């Protein structure tokens, strides 16, 4: 059972995970103070905050810093009461502990406001889940900021921060730099998680590596706008606070209403960035994704083959070729509905185009099932083209502001799913579509940010920034409950909505629209900091690549994509018989190594020059995928040292039959037999052997 303790004589709570501890306590003014987050301990030492000058912030670090008093750092809770006053003063109102869940209740000393700090720990992970609820029992309150949690670090001389940046076609680029003496804000104001940033943040003491050193990292389980504020003061104190929304938004909390924030989870490890990632991966499998024991099927997506030129005959022909390769899931992408012959029209009219599918989608779905594959479909439920029957009938259903224009991006607008009528209509057509066509898989896309995010006539219009995302969650949850066999891929122009919130109701993420394998190595490296390979959609597409025009061998493209949930996205009608044969063989290999890739412990590896690799340790197997995009003449990489290998064991290479000592593989490394030339890659499948055998 999870280990949570309350020490009444010290007014202290101590939370234990398998290898870490977290401790907080009440001070004399009933503020919840942070004491410890790190290696496991018995009882933390309670120290009075060091006295500073009369100009310094008063007191020590708090668990959720609220506006009020001599506090000048970023406040995670900001409210304005009906009488115009701001700030809070707390009175402890009790706590309760239930099956790993701690709630600490705090009441304002004057106003009818209650805040509850939530903590949840498990017995199989060091991840700690935290969130906040705010309840108003009096006159309406204006909430200007309500973060999920604040996190505080012990003092160290040289903290670094790691975070993910990017853009469309260039998501999840890892950046690692010193923490400045300043407030650093990471945010998305787009209504989506965003391509540009991700609500994952890691800090280390400046000396941590992939396999050694302390790491404190956090991840916000939220798919809308978000904000994280990291603060390092001149004295070296480091803390950060984060939650949903962004600056400028306000929410009204009426009488009897409660605002609950999403989970903001945190993890400490002493084993380096690799151990931190593996812990996040395990937590995501055990406590986030809906069906962690499943393996993700090899899919084919028709987009790059057909674009908007989608019809029953063409898709049927592609399905036959995909089935020959060993594909297990066939997905029809954009262009199957309404007047959708380009991205200018039809979005929102979710009935099959009668010229392209005279009998609807059912004949194609039946043929795909007859070929032994699952049937999937692309949808974009949150968006609408102005040139559509839906928009002409309901122009008020989109996000808009009175007396302002409606900005079109990608020739589309955003439906306001915070409206109950819009959300009900959306669920109804999705439910009907899945039922009528026996759909197994939805690729759920969301291809533009919020603009003119208003709700004319609504008393609390900024609520849509919260309620739209919650409506997406609720629709997905209802669909999955009513259709237990349905699986969903989260997509937002690629990786624009990838977070633990969306993964709680989807099965995988479309990582990026950029399928160039050289670019994908970096994208997948960043993605792996938080997310497991099991949820990372990765396709093999045509050469030259449509995004970069780079030419790469089919084997190299496969080896990069095989590091995640493998998909095929090329135009199979143009592939030669030799290419089709090689692809079928590589898909067969992937199916053999898939349990290790999707369920194993991932070890990121770096070699000489451009050599990088990832190894997956699972049960008695170790699967290595290594890539060398370029190398000068005469400079073959040195042997690659394999972390994740048991040094006391021996391993047999399933292709060559060679047996290797685990100790040698870890210390001296494995010689990799790369083919000549650029864009070289290798796959090595090792199986543990009995020394006596």
UniProtKB/TrEMBL annotation:
InterPro entries: Aldolase_TIM, Alpga-gal_N_sf, Alpha-glycosidase_related, GH, Glyco_hydro_27/36_CS, Glyco_hydro_36, Glyco_hydro_36_C, Glyco_hydro_36_N. It catalyses: Hydrolysis of terminal, non-reducing alpha-D-galactose residues in alpha-D-galactosides, including galactose oligosaccharides, galactomannans and galactolipids. One of its GO terms (biological process) is carbohydrate catabolic process. Signal peptide: none annotated. Residues 31-253 form the Glycosyl hydrolase family 36 N-terminal domain. Its EC number is 3.2.1.22. SUPFAM superfamilies: (Trans)glycosidases (SSF51445). The keyword Hydrolase applies. Residues 613-686 form the Glycosyl hydrolase family 36 C-terminal domain. The keyword Hydrolase applies. It is an enzyme of class 3 (hydrolase). Substrate binds at residues 168, 333-334, 410, 443-447, 491, 513. The active site is at 445 (nucleophile), 513 (proton donor). Keywords: Glycosidase, Hydrolase. It holds the Pfam family Melibiase. One of its GO terms (molecular function) is alpha-galactosidase activity. Transmembrane segments: none annotated. Belongs to the glycosyl hydrolase. This is Alpha-galactosidase. It comes from Actinoplanes missouriensis (strain ATCC 14538 / DSM 43046 / CBS 188.64 / JCM 3121 / NBRC 102363 / NCIMB 12654 / NRRL B-3342 / UNCC 431).
């Amino acid at each position: 059972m999870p280990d949570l303790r309350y020490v009444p004589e010290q007014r202290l709570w101590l939370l234990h995970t398998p290898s870490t501890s977290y401790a907080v306590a009440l001070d004399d003014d009933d503020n919840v103070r942070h004491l410890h987050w790190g290696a496991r301990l018995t009882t933390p030492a309670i120290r009075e905050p060091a006295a500073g000058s009369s100009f310094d912030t008063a007191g020590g670090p708090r668990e959720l810093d609220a506006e009020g008093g001599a506090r000048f750092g970023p406040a995670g809770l900001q409210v304005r009461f009906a009488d115009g006053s701001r700030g809070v003063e707390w009175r402890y109102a009790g706590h309760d502990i239930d099956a790993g869940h701690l709630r600490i209740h705090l009441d304002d000393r004057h106003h009818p406001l209650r805040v509850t700090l939530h903590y949840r720990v498990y017995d199989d992970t060091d991840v700690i889940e935290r969130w906040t609820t705010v309840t108003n029992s009096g006159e309406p309150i204006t909430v200007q900021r309500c973060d999920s949690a604040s996190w505080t670090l012990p003092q160290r001389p040289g903290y670094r921060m790691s975070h993910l940046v990017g853009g469309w076609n260039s998501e999840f680029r890892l950046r690692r730099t010193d923490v400045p003496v300043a407030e650093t804000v990471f945010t998305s104001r787009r209504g989506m998680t965003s391509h540009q940033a991700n609500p994952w943040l890691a800090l280390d003491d400046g000396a941590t590596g992939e396999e050694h050193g302390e790491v404190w990292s956090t991840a916000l389980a939220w798919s809308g706008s978000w904000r994280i504020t990291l603060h390092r003061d001149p004295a070296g104190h480091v803390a950060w606070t984060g939650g949903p929304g962004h600056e400028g938004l306000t929410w009204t909390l009426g009488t009897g209403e409660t605002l609950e924030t999403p989970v903001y989870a945190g993890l400490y490890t002493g084993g380096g960035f690799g151990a931190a990632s593996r812990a996040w991966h395990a937590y995501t499998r055990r406590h986030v994704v809906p069906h962690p024991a499943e393996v993700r099927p090899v899919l084919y997506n028709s987009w790059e083959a057909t674009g908007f030129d989608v019809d029953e005959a063409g898709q049927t022909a592609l399905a036959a070729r995909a089935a020959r390769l060993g594909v297990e899931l066939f997905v029809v992408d954009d262009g199957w509905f309404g007047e959708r012959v380009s991205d200018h029209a039809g979005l929102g009219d979710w009935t099959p185009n009668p010229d392209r599918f005279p009998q609807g989608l059912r004949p194609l779905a039946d043929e795909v099932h007859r070929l032994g594959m699952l049937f999937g479909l692309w949808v974009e439920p949150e968006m609408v083209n102005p040139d559509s029957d839906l928009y002409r009938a309901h122009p008020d259903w989109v996000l808009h502001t009175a007396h302002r224009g409606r900005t079109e991006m990608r020739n589309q607008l955003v439906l306001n799913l915070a409206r109950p009528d819009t959300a009900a209509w959306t669920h109804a057509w999705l439910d009907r579509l899945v039922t009528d066509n026996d759909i197994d898989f939805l690729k759920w896309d969301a291809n533009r940010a919020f603009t003119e995010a208003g709700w004319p006539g609504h008393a609390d219009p900024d609520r849509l920034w919260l309620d739209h995302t919650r409506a997406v969650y609720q629709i997905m949850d209802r669909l999955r409950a009513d259709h237990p066999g349905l699986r969903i891929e989260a997509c937002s122009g690629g990786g624009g909505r990838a977070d633990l919130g969306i993964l709680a109701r989807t099965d995988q993420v479309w990582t990026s629209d950029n399928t160039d394998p050289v670019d994908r190595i970096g994208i997948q490296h960043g993605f792996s900091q938080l997310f497991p390979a099991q949820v990372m959609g990765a396709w093999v597409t045509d050469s030259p690549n449509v995004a970069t025009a780079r030419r790469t061998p089919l084997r190299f493209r496969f080896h990069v994509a095989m590091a995640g949930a493998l998909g095929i996205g090329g135009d199979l009608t143009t592939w030669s018989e030799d290419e089709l044969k090689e692809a079928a063989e590589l898909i067969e290999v992937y199916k053999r190594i898939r349990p290790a890739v999707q369920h194993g412990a991932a070890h990121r590896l770096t070699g000489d020059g451009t050599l990088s690799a990832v190894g997956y340790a699972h049960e008695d197997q170790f699967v290595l995928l290594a890539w060398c995009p370029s190398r000068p003449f005469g400079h073959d990489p040195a042997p690659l040292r394999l972390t994740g290998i048991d040094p006391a064991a021996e391993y047999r290479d399933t292709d060559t039959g060679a047996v290797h000592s685990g100790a040698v593989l870890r210390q001296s490394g494995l010689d990799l037999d790369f083919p000549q030339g650029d864009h070289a890659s290798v796959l090595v499948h090792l199986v543990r052997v009995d020394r006596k055998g």
